[in-house]
Amino acid sequence: LPGDSSQALHHFRICLNMCPMALCSQFGTHLHVSLTDVHSLSCNLIIRSPTKAEPLWYEGQCSMDGIDFLSSNNVNKTMPLGNQEKMANATEVWTCLTQWIDRWKQELRDKVSEIKVHTTKTSGHPTLRVTMLSKHSHEQIIGASWEFNTSENYSFILDLKTMKWKLINPVPGDIMKEWKDDETLMKHLNLSIAECSKKFNEFLNQHEERTSRAPDITQPPPTSQVPYKEVLIPVGLIISIIFIIFICICVKRMCCTQGGEEQRGVSSCPW
């Protein structure tokens, strides 16, 4: 595995073990978390035991904040979903998940084949349903887990904060213990969330920066007083001049009228 992947896993484990209430960050132990601003990255996978009659043995779908943006299966490979213009900036998240899905589906397909041997409740070819979930707030992972369900009758969860497995619906056979003892599987389950969560945090930061720089279309643009002053001052002067001229004309007429009455034919008006 590349060096940066190992480093991401190292920070991921330290944070999950040290931060109280699972408030952790891949870049340190920043505890200023706002629970009102939580984002999620999740993937739901369905894996069946492969047969000759049914070539489709894997299906998967991933979402960010509940919005599906990635779909994949072993026949049509990986396909983007949703608004591609909006998802264009999530390319690194998309790439990270795609690479890890290729590993998950191969490893988990082998596990599905083993399940058929161990469990007697499963009739026919078993189906494995897997849910990967990580929750984030301000560059911090506040929770991460893997949930596994085999043919609707055997469920268990891997909590990456405590690194413990928990049975939900146990059946005879110690399938969970075998998975727990699989070091390669455990490493990949941890590292995949560590890597893709880092890309997801970077995407959230970029989205927040773009949003903060974009103008708020709900607010009216600020009005400038300078143009109004430039217009109002000349208009005021013109109105004042017109008013003065009007007063002068009225006074002149009144003066001339009175002078005419006193001395006919001789204007006593000073103008």
From TrEMBL:
Organism field: Rattus norvegicus (Rat)
Any one GO CC term of the record: plasma membrane
Cellular localisation: Cell membrane
Protein name: Retinoic acid early-inducible protein 1 domain-containing protein
Known function: Acts as a ligand for KLRK1.
Alphabetic keyword roster: Cell membrane, Disulfide bond, Glycoprotein, GPI-anchor, Lipoprotein, Membrane, Signal, Transmembrane, Transmembrane helix
Family affiliation: Belongs to the NKG2D ligand family.
Membrane topology: Lipid-anchor; GPI-anchor
Molecular function GO terms recorded: natural killer cell lectin-like receptor binding
PANTHER family on file: MHC CLASS I-RELATED, RETINOIC ACID EARLY TRANSCRIPT 1E
Pfam families linked: MHC_I_2
InterPro entries assigned to the protein according to its UniProt record, in alphabetical order: MHC_class-I_related, MHC_I-like_Ag-recog_sf, MHC_I/II-like_Ag-recog, RAE-1
Source taxon at top rank: Eukaryota
